[in-house]
Amino acid sequence: MTTTRPLFDSYPQLSGALPWLPLADLPTPVEPVSGIGSNAWIKRDDLSHAVYGGNKLRKLEFILADVLARGKTHVITFGATGTNHGVATAMLCQQLGLRCTVLLFEQPPSTTVRDNLARMRHFGAELQFCDSLANTVRHYYLHPKRLSRRHYFLFAGGSNVAGTMGFINAAFELRQQIDTGQCPLPSQIFVPVGSSATLAGLSIGAALAGVESDIIGIRVAPSHLGIIPTCTPATVNQLIRQTSAALTKAGLSLPTIPTAKLIDSYYGDGYGVATKAGSSATEKFAECGITLDQTYTAKAAAAFLDAGRQSTEVQLYWHTFNSRPVDWLLEQSRV
What we know:
Blueprint: H1 6-10, H2 14-17, E1 30-32, E2 40-44, H3 56-69, E3 74-80, H4 84-96, E4 99-105, H5 111-122, E5 126-129, H6 133-141, E6 151-154, H7 161-179, E7 188-193, H8 197-209, E8 214-219, E9 224-225, E10 228-229, H9 233-249, E11 261-263, H10 276-286, H11 297-310, E12 315-319, H12 327-334
Parallel strand pairs: 2-12, 3-4, 3-6, 4-5, 7-8, 7-12, 8-11
Antiparallel strand pairs: 1-2, 9-10
Helix pairs in contact: 3-4, 3-7, 4-5, 5-12, 7-8, 7-9, 8-9, 10-11
């Protein structure tokens, strides 16, 4: 684990402009997946924390530093009943002495849903069940604490400008690993996309760090809530523009950022609903010792496997799920 971040090594002026806390175990390993193919690689963000890993830790290093810098004491966020974001936010809020409330909408039952509800309770989160996604979003935006100076409202998945900075840094981390011979430069990088910050941050970061890979997002969340776009190329590009503006304000001269690439065809019948391709990917990765979940990573991994069958170029799958054992934690939650 390092106590510095490569983004700040490349742009020292940002260290004074962007609040940041060393909360994640970084860098995460990048490894070949020999059981899948000679050109298949994986970025192990499932190992981003000793207790509970996943991609949210990268975002929360910047988000929770922003919370503290603004003098806030209570984070209010939302997600599905199996939200990984809710678990990671609750864990780190507890570590930092912050209150955490998670507004929840229903998703299809699974082991992940059951376990993550127990994890959030273990980490002291206040859980409010709001039934549907529409009701949850309405409660989030019309929350009576909106005008409070002590409350920080965090969009689902940690997708705000601060959270996006975490994945800009991630691209610089990958650049270092490529430069030191830990992995080859991938032709394509595959990542699941729900709330946009992971894809937005990697798109900006790859352009800044000179990682000449196609960053390909796989949509795993509803594209719209009614007529409101929620997971579309437009929502990702909007976050890219907002974050780019913040970097420009901090004194950076940015290159042209490519338009976000978001594939819809692996989503299936709904949020959290398993797909045949995803289940097949889960079995294939399990043979390699990698655990996937049906909501996010299985769908992105399915796209990664399909690309590998169609190309001899190096492909990298960015694994965003937690793989840390939590039996002890769930046992404590039942006591």
